[in-house]
Amino acid sequence: MMIATLNFTRCRKLLTSYVLQFVSAIFPYTFSHCQEQGLFQLPQDTRSQPLSTGESLSRLEIEPGYSVSLMAAEPLIIDPIDVAFDDMGRMWVVEMRDYPFQIGDMPEGRITILSDSNGDGIYDHSQVFADRLKMPTGLALWRSGAVVTLAGEMTFFEDLDNDLHADKQTIWLTGFSQQNEQLRANHPRLGPDGKWYIASGLRGGDLQVASFQNNNPPDAAIKIGSRDICFDPQTNELELITGPGQFGLTFDSLGRRYVCSNRNPAIQVVFEQADLRSNPLDGLISSVTDVLPAGEASQVFPLTAAWTTSNLHAGQFTAACGVFVSPNETLSHEDPSSLGELFACEPTGNLVKRTQLQLDGYTCVPTTRPWEKSHDWLASRDPWFRAVNVAQAPDGQVVIVDMHRAVIEHPQWVPTELKQRPDERWGNNAGRIYWAGPSTSQGELANVLKQIRSHPLRGRTDLELAQLMGHANSWLRTTAGRLILERNIADNLSTRDVVEHLSQIAIDPSVSLLARCNAVQLLNVVADDENSLWDSLLHQDTPELLTACVMRSLRQINRQAVLQHLAPKIFDIAQSALKPAAQFEALLTLGKLDAESSKQLLAINPNWESQLLNSSPELLIHSDPVMFMALAVALRHTPELILKHWLIELSTQSESHAVVASAAHVRNIAMALSSASANSTEVISILKTIEAILRSPNHSSATLAALSSLVVLAPKFPNQTNDVWPSVVTIVQSSDEAPLRQAAANALAMSPRDQDLSLIESLAMADDQTADLRTSLFTAWHRLDKDKCDDHLLTLIGNSPIPVHATAIRLLATSPQGIEKLLTAMESGQVNAKQVGITDLRNLVTRAQGESKRRLENQIDQMVNTNRNAVLEKYRECLSLATNKPNGREVFRTHCAACHRIDNIGTQVGPDISDSRTLQPIQILTSILDPNLAIDNNYLRFVVLLDSDEVVDGVIAEESDDNLIFVGSAGQRTMVARNRVQGMRATGVSLMPEGLEAQIDLQQMADLIAFIKGWRYMEVTSP
């Protein structure tokens, strides 16, 4: 998390003694080091008031060829965070006046409507539409009012008498989390399918549709988790969708959704939850992808110097927000793959990044131009410039929402020493909004405003609005489309004329592709199932972008009558590898076919599934996991067909031509498809294929896939696998590839032959095996003979390599009998509880029951002092000891690397601690000894009991309708089907347990802190 603690201009002049001493006391090393290295210059002053609008505007620097001008400022608006323009060009502004938190008796948030009285593009009059709002976070215009997200709810504010004051408030949704003000639900946006989309803000909640909708008691609350929300107020349908977005949500002209988070300025949603429903590979890969480089790969070029918690984050996105895609008709005419321009705000760096967005296959990529290699599109030398959002102006250009404050970061994220800082609310009386666009477009805004003031869009006929859908101004299209949709819902729309005109726009090659896409999306919402219309849109010469848009639109509304008619065409497009974007959307659309629609396709082509698989070998060898997932969507009802063709394709491809995925990825595909396969005839055929592959294991990917499939399929058909086990034995005994030996050991546990059990036991007990192979052998042995294996596992604890040691504890913890044996061994002294470790002891407590749980807690009590303050006082002594960073590195490797990563050691599961050089040693010590003092919800540990009595624990990395994805210590990614969950609870604590000091003495702690803080300076080449 990036935090703006103090902001400096580039001038090297006076700094008040108070601030200088204050900063140097908190960051003595960083402050002096940066001064010596000339990394920043001191500020000219510590002003408590904003610069004048003119002076601040003069400090804005924008890319050559573009201009920026002031549209509105204080006192008309204060702390703006979102804007929208109505059909008369009035600007509706969300003001979060209480930021960072409410301090008075009444909330101060409000919605203000700004007017431009003389049509010059500068807004000079304000009127309060709604006030006393508790932390409003976004709005969108709808009918005679606005849909607003605010603390805990999504509410529709209506103006019933047209006086620009809200007369009625109707709560649509309630139950959003009200934790940190920066992380609440935000950005209500009307989607291309006519439904409302909301970014959940990272903190989720227990969501309900308000009972007013149907005058019935509300349904049970739905846990949002790590997802966003889609809502249809006409039907009360509430849907959890792929997410979550932190502060920002936008759509491109194709209808694809984008969100963002602090370190991820633009995240494209590749798979929506509905796309993956019933897909056997759901959860195999992430459903989202970064469009712009994220985290340490990102790059910004601020003109100011901003203090951050992590100096390693300097020059990177650390507070990204307000992502926005603006269609650009000029670009789309020049390049049919262009989707417009993408904007992302970085308020801490006082800048806005812009890039051209292009369609590249199924996803979108930015186009880097020469200017962007060393500059940002818009940046300010005024450190109070806090761009938090981007929206579209009535002339089709963009507006920049500048909250304009000295400090933008929420106090929750700043160090304790800065939580009561004097400048926290400097800027509570300020706020600015700017217009920005090509210099050649200056003056166009005033012209558009004059036109719509004299002839408001709301007063135009249905046909006039439909005609605007072909306009080059994308704001006019969007606004006209919203008004058409409002009238359609109100049942007073002349549908036939509108549909006819929209259809003409959609097929007219002289109209921009982006406008044609917009027409298609609106047609899909307001038109009937007219097959002739969709037939005319899908032909050989249809541009790929438009074809993809048609596929996506039909899938969103789920028009089965149209899909049934178009099924043959959709099938043909799904095979069009030369048009990957259209192919991707068509594959997902095939997955939407219901039984009747599938019959239509089967009547024409009875073998369409096999034909699709045979025509797409490049998809089957998992060189592109996203397209492989899309293929699995299309064939979600026949996973055994995918599995069989996949195995055959892997075995026939030479290793040099096949793109070999990681062993874990291959195993996951094989086991997921095998678990979902139900057609017994096909499965028996697959087993024959597996036998042939294992008899001649020339292709490691195919052999690994075959062995992994065997683990799942063999128990289902034990009599069909008699001839396969000799080949498995040969692999486990003599293969040169470790992953294959491990997979063969796992498979051999399914063998019904007594000699194979004896072989597993003897191999597991042999000391000359690699640690990884032994872990697989022990897992197999434990599956076959728990009692005997448990006795041997006890002898390994504390006397084996870390992977074997960890496996022993994990296997013992899978059954009450194993836990009892381990407990007895600890109580008798056979096993030292410290060798088990505090982390595993706490994991055991979550799995044990009754008396066993109490006895385990007693073991922990003997190791851990529950008085964290007392422990901290004891360990303060380590801060005065001489340190040895290399020794600290080994302490880190042993005790921390399972969840953290530093210097290429470990796995990043918990928070990033590699950038702690600005922290004082006492801060690091406190975090180690009291890890639950200030834990972020994103790293809360969950414990899940499965129907097999297995227990899975970790943080929730991703959710879908069917699966939960957990990441545990060591970065292990576990996919859990929701229907297997017997119980799940949040532990309220982090993955890192209290009591780590029981295994680390004072000197080791000193060395560990020195390594965490100074690892970058261990080598002489470090800066």
List strands and helices in order, with pairings.
Blueprint: E1 7-8, H1 17-26, H2 28-37, H3 53-58, E2 60-62, E3 66-73, E4 80-85, E5 91-95, E6 109-115, E7 125-133, E8 138-142, E9 145-150, E10 153-158, E11 168-176, E12 186-190, E13 196-199, E14 205-209, E15 222-223, E16 227-232, E17 237-242, E18 249-251, E19 257-261, E20 264-269, H4 273-276, E21 288-290, E22 305-306, E23 321-326, H5 329-334, E24 338-346, E25 351-360, E26 363-367, E27 378-380, E28 387-392, E29 398-402, E30 432-438, H6 444-454, H7 462-468, H8 474-489, H9 495-507, H10 513-526, H11 531-537, H12 544-557, H13 560-574, H14 580-590, H15 595-604, H16 608-614, H17 617-620, H18 625-634, H19 639-652, H20 663-676, H21 680-695, H22 700-713, H23 725-734, H24 738-748, H25 754-765, H26 771-784, H27 786-794, H28 802-812, H29 816-828, H30 833-836, H31 838-847, H32 850-863, H33 868-875, H34 885-895, E31 901-902, E32 905-906, H35 921-929, E33 940-946, E34 951-959, E35 963-967, E36 973-977, E37 981-990, H36 1002-1014
Antiparallel strand pairs: 1-22, 2-27, 3-30, 4-5, 5-6, 6-7, 8-9, 9-10, 10-11, 11-14, 12-13, 13-16, 14-15, 16-17, 18-19, 19-20, 20-21, 23-24, 24-25, 25-26, 25-27, 28-29, 29-30, 31-32, 33-34, 33-37, 34-35, 35-36
Helix pairs in contact: 1-2, 7-8, 7-9, 8-10, 9-10, 10-12, 12-14, 13-14, 13-15, 14-18, 19-20, 19-21, 19-22, 20-22, 21-22, 22-24, 23-24, 24-26, 25-26, 26-27, 26-28, 27-29, 29-32, 31-32, 34-36
